[in-house]
C-alpha cells in the first residue's frame, strides 16, 4: 500500500486541507491518505473536549472519500503527539509499499530539525511540501542534511484555521470554507465563540 499521512491540529479542518489531500492523492498515486489529528501538539494547549471536537470534525469532513481515512493513533496515548512515534506505529499497522509520505507546509518544514527525533524521523518518511502564495523558500540545506522532499505544485488556497476561528468569534459566516457537515457541527456545539 502506498501511504501518505496528513497530520495536523485541524482546528478546524477546512476546505484547503481537503484540496491539499485530494491533490496529493491524484498526483502522486497513493492508495490512502490518513488524516491524523494531533491529540496534544507539543507547542499548543488544548482541552480534552476540544481534542475530541477536532477529531470529530475531521471524521465528518472526509467521510465521503473512500481513499481518506482518519486515525486516532495520537489519541490512544493521550500524551504529546510526536510524528516520529506515529510513523513507527503506522509501519507496524500497515503493509507499506516504499516509504510513508508526509504532507507538510513550508512554515512547519523550516522548523523540522527542532522536531522530536528529527534525525530518525527523516529516515522514515518522504515529505510533500506545500508552499504559501508568493512565498520564496530555499530548502536546499534540508536536502543536504538528508531530508527527502518534493514540492506540491497546487495553486495556493488562502484559508487558515486561525482566520476561521476569528470569523466564527465575530459571528461571520464560514459557509464554503468548510464542509456543510463541519459547519453544522461547529454551530451545534457552539465552538470558537469565545476565541
Describe the protein.
It is a single chain. This protein has nine helices and six strands; from the N terminus they run βαβαβααβααβαβαα. A six-stranded parallel sheet has the order 3-2-1-4-5-6, sandwiched between helices. The longest helix is centred in the N-terminal third of the chain and has 15 residues, at 48-62. Helix 7 (140-144) links the parallel strand 5 (125-130) and strand 6 (149-152). The protein is of the alpha/beta class and 195 residues long. Helices cover 41% and strands 16% of the residues. It is globular, with a radius of gyration of 16 Å. The model has no long low-confidence stretch (mean pLDDT 92). The protein has helices at residues 15-28, 48-62, 73-76, 83-93, 106-109, 118-124, 140-144, 161-169, 180-189; strands at residues 3-8, 32-37, 68-70, 100-105, 125-130, 149-152. The protein has one domain: HUPs (Rossmann fold), CATH 3.40.50.620. The termini are far apart.
Total helices: the number is 9
* Count of separate structural domains: 1
Query: How are helices and strands ordered from N to C?
Result: EHEHEHHEHHEHEHH
Task: Give the name of the CATH architecture.
Answer: 3-Layer(aba) Sandwich
As a percent range, the share of helical residues equals 40-55%
Which radius of gyration do the C-alpha atoms yield?
Answer: 16 Å
Which outline best applies? globular
As an assembly, this protein is: single chain
Report strand %: 15-25%
Strand order of the largest sheet: 3-2-1-4-5-6
CATH class: Alpha Beta
Instruction: Report on the biggest sheet.
Output: 6 strands, parallel
CATH superfamily: HUPs
Gap between N and C termini: 41 Å
Amino acid at each position: 500500500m502506498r501511504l501518505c499521512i496528513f497530520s495536523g491540529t485541524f482546528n478546524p479542518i477546512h476546505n484547503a486541507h481537503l484540496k491539499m489531500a485530494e491533490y496529493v492523492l491524484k498526483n502522486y498515486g497513493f492508495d490512502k491518505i490518513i488524516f491524523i489529528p494531533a491529540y496534544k501538539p507539543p507547542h499548543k494547549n488544548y482541552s480534552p473536549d476540544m481534542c475530541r471536537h477536532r477529531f470529530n470534525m475531521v471524521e465528518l469532513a472526509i467521510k465521503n472519500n473512500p481513499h481518506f481515512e482518519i486515525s486516532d493513533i495520537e489519541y490512544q496515548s493521550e500524551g504529546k503527539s510526536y510524528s516520529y512515534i506515529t510513523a513507527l506505529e503506522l509501519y507496524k499497522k500497515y503493509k507499506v509499499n516504499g516509504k510513508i509520505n508526509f504532507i507538510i507546509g513550508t512554515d512547519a518544514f523550516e522548523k523540522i530539525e527542532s522536531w522530536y527525533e528529527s534525525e530518525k524521523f527523516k529516515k522514515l518518511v518522504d515529505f510533500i511540501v506545500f508552499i504559501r502564495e508568493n512565498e520564496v523558500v530555499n530548502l536546499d540545506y534540508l536536502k543536504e542534511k538528508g531530508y527527502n522532499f518534493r514540492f506540491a505544485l497546487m495553486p495556493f488556497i488562502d484559508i487558515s484555521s486561525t482566520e476561521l476561528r476569528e470569523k466564527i468569534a465575530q459571528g461571520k459566516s464560514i459557509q464554503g470554507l468548510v464542509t456543510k457537515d463541519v459547519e453544522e457541527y461547529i454551530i451545534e456545539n457552539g465552538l470558537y465563540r469565545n476565541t
